[in-house]
Amino acid sequence: MTESPAIIAIFAILIACAALAAMAIVLWRARNPAQAEDTVMAELSRAHADAATRLEAMIGLLAKGQSQLAHTVNERLDSVSHRLGDSLEKTKQSTHENLQKLNERLAVIDRAQKNITELATQVTSLQGVLANKQSRGAFGQWRMEAIVQDSLPKGAYAFQHTLSNRTRPDCCVFMPDKRPLVIDAKFPLEGVTAYRDAKSDDERKAAAQRLRADVGKHVGDIAEKYLIPGETQELALMFVPSESVYAEVCDGFDDLVQKAYRAKVVIVSPSLLMLAVALVQQIQKDARMREAADQIRDEVGRLVKDVGLLGDRVRKLQTHFSQSNEDIRQAIISIEKIEAHGERIQQVEVSAQALAGSNVIEAPMLRKLEAGE
């Protein structure tokens, strides 16, 4: 590409030179008409041949420059195409990865949207449940029963248990002293709902009075029906099935909480009921451990007594065994004496046979034999 302008400039100079030569010849012919036409034609032929030779050389140089230019252009086009292909491939891969991540995030958003829709449906249904007094009582009863059943073993509680005054509390948790702890799940939420929905100070004041009246009456009913001296525990639990309602009552109506406490009725939320039931479970476990410890102590006492009897019998057996050893020792002594007498008898018999064979028996020897010595 750098040689092309130079070649074009040389080509232009040669053409200019050829034109100047032709003009010079024409001028020369105009000034010397008498010269021979052959000389002029020879000069023209020589100039034409020189111009043709130079033109051919310039064409060769131009062709070579064009070939080099085309080669350079092709190389640069190949390099640009390669870089462009790499860039397109990287862009394609990056775009694919970004689209994949986008699809994953869209899937997460879809799942979140479904969860939000389901939650909104559940909240709507919960609002419908809480709007109906009977449904709200059933909801509180169900949640209280779920907490108690998940924490305590069967036999440690009873739902709708009948007391001696023919009342049937929602739940009775049996303590180690056989006196049940009563749990009531019928918290009045109408006053709380009205207090939340109040838009003016007068409405809020009226709703607060209604809330105090409803909760106070319910506390009095629990204390009157379910706190039986000698039969139930001294405290009863009033279950609130919502943490937010419990927090609102405790924060805005502390006088109600204190009034209930003085009436020996404790207002509890789901988390506090779980804690109370866990505490009851631990108390029952400790009582069972104490009963088991008493049984173990009794069994250990009987075991110690049996071990003492076994020791007496072993000592008696040891006495009998010692006497048996002495009897065996005496029997062995008698056996040894008998064996010694038998050996002497055998020796006497051998001596008598030897004397009878020799027919020489002395009187003293015979006497000894007869005496058994």
Protein architecture, described:
With 373 residues, the chain is mostly helical. Among the domains are: 4-101; 138-289, Trna Endonuclease, Chain: A, domain 1. It is built from nine helices and five strands; from the N terminus they run H-H-H-E-E-E-H-H-E-H-H-E-H-H. It has helices spanning 4-31, 37-131, 133-151, 190-197, 201-226, 243-252, 254-262, 270-358, 363-371; strands at 157-159, 171-174, 180-184, 236-239, 265-268. Strands 1-2-3-4-5 form a five-stranded mixed beta sheet. A hairpin with a 5-residue loop joins strand 2 and strand 3 (180-184). Mean pLDDT is 77; it is low at 359-363.
Provide a compact summary of the structure:
The chain is mainly alpha-helical. It has nine helices and five strands; from the N terminus they run αααβββααβααβαα. Strand 2 and strand 3 form a beta hairpin.
Enumerate the spans where pLDDT stays under 50 for 5 or more consecutive residues.
Answer: 359-363
Secondary-structure element series: HHHEEEHHEHHEHH
Helix content: over 70%
Number of helical runs?
9
Could you give a short account of the major beta sheet?
Answer: 5 strands, mixed
Please give the CATH class of one domain.
Alpha Beta
Radius of gyration: 65 Å
What is the number of E strands?
A: 5
Strand order of the largest sheet: 1-2-3-4-5
Rough outline: flat
The quaternary organization reads as single chain
Q: Which class do the helix and strand fractions yield?
A: mainly alpha
CATH architecture descriptor name of one domain: 3-Layer(aba) Sandwich
Q: What is the first-to-last residue Cα distance?
A: 158 Å
Strand content: 5-15%
Mean pLDDT: 77
CATH topology of one domain: Trna Endonuclease, Chain: A, domain 1
